[in-house]
Amino acid sequence: MNTLVINCGSSSVKYKFYSMPREELIAKGAIDKIGEKGSRIKNHLQALERVLGEIKEVDAIGHRVVHGGEQFQEPVVINSGVIRKIKTCSGLAPLHNPANLDGIRACGEILKNVEQVAVFDTAFHQSLPESAYIYGLPYRLYQQYGIRKYGFHGSSHEYVAREAAGRLKKDISAVNLITCHLGNGCSVTAIKNGKSVDTSMGFTPLEGLLMGTRSGDIDPAVVTYLIQRKKMSVSSVDALLNKESGLKGISGVSNDMRKIKEAAGKGNLRAKLAIEIFVYRIQRYISAYMGILGKADAIVFTAGIGENHPDIVRKICKGLFGNLKIKPRVMVIPTDEELMIARQTYRTLRGTLRGQTSTLEVRTRNQSVARRICDNIKK
Ligand code: ADP
Predict the structure, then answer these.
(1) What are 165-177's pLDDT values in tens digits?
(2) Hey, which of 121, 156, 256 would you mutate to test ligand 1's pocket, going by the most ligand atoms within 8 Å of its Cβ?
(3) Which helix (H) or strand (E) holds 44?
(4) Which end of the chain is more exposed for a tag (fewer CB within 10 A), N or C?
């Protein structure tokens, strides 16, 4: 099944094209600056027309969708009802979900007969218990507005968890892990018997660890203080927390770990401090999650910093497990969110089509495509 994975950001489209289930990468690419001044690509439809002008024989499309709210626990085949539900989650991810929907609509217009699957960043964390996802706010805010912890980076945490289980030669349902996705955005997840039971990002991807430009956990009273006493506007506080804080805000150097390490190496004290805080916050979450899990088979590091900075990984792990009789293994596993989406797309359509072919009623919109997919599955 030739599966195109699409990741639509507000001004970009990234794609990878796989032959499944062999997981062979056939093509990949990206278009950015969509809709920006001077760009020839005005919208997602034009961007995807360009992508699909080059990529032929697409059997299925998997879309990364950032927020599935509580509506989606797993990937789904996209239809008009699913599009409506994704729209209702847009308020929770105003920058991301509308772009994801633009991509879905554009693909639907260009390739009318190709099945599309939505894979949600939040879905892996839908297994969190209430005690982990309800905030200490009046309960009605959850009931009325859906304000709760959702968690993000789900495809990445799930991908590395499955890879780790493979390395441990155990079934995913038999492993306890702490997975650390450390990129520009950073999050830690506690995984018990293969399921996410807690994660550091929250209602939005702002909560939790110190990140490239995001503050992570702070006292929420800082926000009201800045607005009421320092007369900052709501939008400038929002920009401060999301774009000017984190490693960049503390170091005053950059959000890029390479540049911060270089500056720290030259004696820049704030760059050193930024690294210390970054490491400390991760240690704090790992320690808490170790306590919750009781026992972890491995701590897994992934994404730009996790994969490329062994000195940071060593700093994080140093002294962490000193008093444990059985220490968890430390693993560095490169993430591949797109491959996870391709796998989920394949699995979702295979499930649907298997059900359909068993009744000899192939009800997909394009029967010849469905038969080809079924033939591939049988192979
Ligand atoms: P994003 O979250 O935007 O996908 P990444 O996962 O690439 O970003 O993470 C960005 C961080 O990872 C930066 O701090 C950067 O320094 C670091 N990083 C990414 N790639 C490399 C590399 N090849 N070598 C060293 N550091 C890297």
Answers:
(1) 999 999 999 999 9
(2) 256
(3) helix 44-54
(4) C
